[in-house]
């Protein structure tokens, strides 16, 4: 029989220490205790939260009944000519379905944005054939609530009974569960409340949208089931133990970054899922593991990784990878969840909370509640780009984007990182992702890229709670579209800007340098930005 997953350690500088960490984990039977749901594994402070967060270890069994229910709903919808699935959900409520459907090659429109243009494009699709899945564990996430309001109105405006086209996934008792009951939405799938968002790939959050879109979710559970005995075993061959020990020891030696490249796994977008799991689980109390997702095995950050990073191939090993993990998606989900929970124990943190996420949400809410009477003036304007630096790091005589970028990179400590955060349309503005390798190549810093506000529910926890060695480049842009949020005093563009400004304030409050570049014309702005990066030469 072929192994359900393979973890290859291509090179490890600290073999003996890794072996010690492995034997400590095994001596205390940590893997089997984790699989049995022992909440004491992360110390007394984490125990009460862990007690309501460990049901993910058995989802390959407990989620089985969902498969038939989802298939029945899909058949009903198809009979009614409804075959376009739009998913409104942030972070753990959309990252897994995006990978599952991308890998299966079935279409799913994911709404995890407040960009007015991107939402307008989703609305412009064929509403006659559309079902909206509204996924939110808490039932109170502002983006998801906005999408529900916007689509409900759009269905009604198009003469479609919105109730028949909205399917909800949420925790029992959440505000969204109450709204769904009151409105009489088509179906409500109660999620397992004892699984946190980023560990919920194999709950209703991962399975409902993916199954409705046509992915083979039964097979996904089979893949997880095949690996379950391996990750629960108190054995030195346990793939999750091997990974966790590598990361904990690397972290102790100053390699707190994990650079992920897909090397031909056949999985689409795994990095986007795993980065939330690792960053949000571990990035807190000034420590953690920073995932850096790169374009491929030849990308900057991977080929030229230094001593501050471990390179991981998802797929076969390549010359630059230190570790290679090969296996199907369902197995990868479970192995990385176990590895993260085990690494969290090694780092001495609670891998199930996200103490710094709320701060940015609160700052955005304050800005929406009390908008500034006069907008802030840019520090300088360079063609179609306005620059808004946080206080205290940009010399006053800097007047060009190229110089400002150079100063931002120079403000990072040695072995720090640069985080690029694009509050833009990740479909129409997809080419902004090019900025990451361009900057990484010149900055000689590990460089991450995230779409705002999506990353706020993912790596955003690490930026504020993890190692304090990041510098931050925010990109915001003018929009030609306006999308109102029904029964709310703001439109999406206003919300999007408040989210960028709110997170920027919180980062600056942590003493981190933040440069916001606002593109008054997105296309011309990108061209100018790339030119400035190339000219920068830092
Ligand atoms: O599912 P929801 O309650 O809407 O939450 C969606 C996401 O947003 C939060 O801010 C958390 O940081 C994430 O862990 C979570 O996955």
Number of domain modules: 3
Give the integer mean of the pLDDT values.
Answer: 97
Provide the CATH top-level class of the largest domain: Alpha Beta
| Terminal Cα span | 51 Å
How many beta strands in the DSSP annotation? Answer: 16
Alpha carbon gyration radius: 23 Å
Helix count, per DSSP? 20
Q: β content, as a range?
A: 15-25%
Helicity, as a percent range: 40-55%
The CATH architecture of the largest domain comes to 3-Layer(aba) Sandwich
Low-confidence stretches: none
Tell me the major beta sheet.
Answer: 6 strands, mixed
Question: How does this model look, in words?
Answer:
The chain contains 20 helices and 16 strands. The N and C termini lie far apart (51 Å). The chain has helices at 15-27, 30-35, 44-50, 59-62, 64-79, 95-104, 116-123, 142-157, 175-183, 204-213, 217-231, 239-252, 270-282, 329-347, 357-369, 401-410, 435-443, 460-465, 492-509, 522-536; strands spanning 6-9, 84-88, 109-111, 130-136, 166-170, 187-190, 257-262, 290-293, 309-314, 323-326, 380-382, 385-389, 417-423, 446-451, 470-477, 514-519. With 538 residues, the chain is of the alpha/beta class. It has three domains: 6-44 and 234-347, Glucose-6-phosphate isomerase like protein, domain 1 (Rossmann fold), CATH 3.40.50.10490; 63-217, 3-Layer(aba) Sandwich (Rossmann fold); 357-536, Rossmann fold, CATH 3.40.50.10490. The longest helix is centred in the middle third of the chain and has 19 residues, at 329-347. Bound molecules: 6-O-phosphono-alpha-D-glucopyranose. 6-O-phosphono-alpha-D-glucopyranose (G6P) is lined by residues 90-93, 136-138, 141, 144, 197-198, 280, 354, 357, 457.
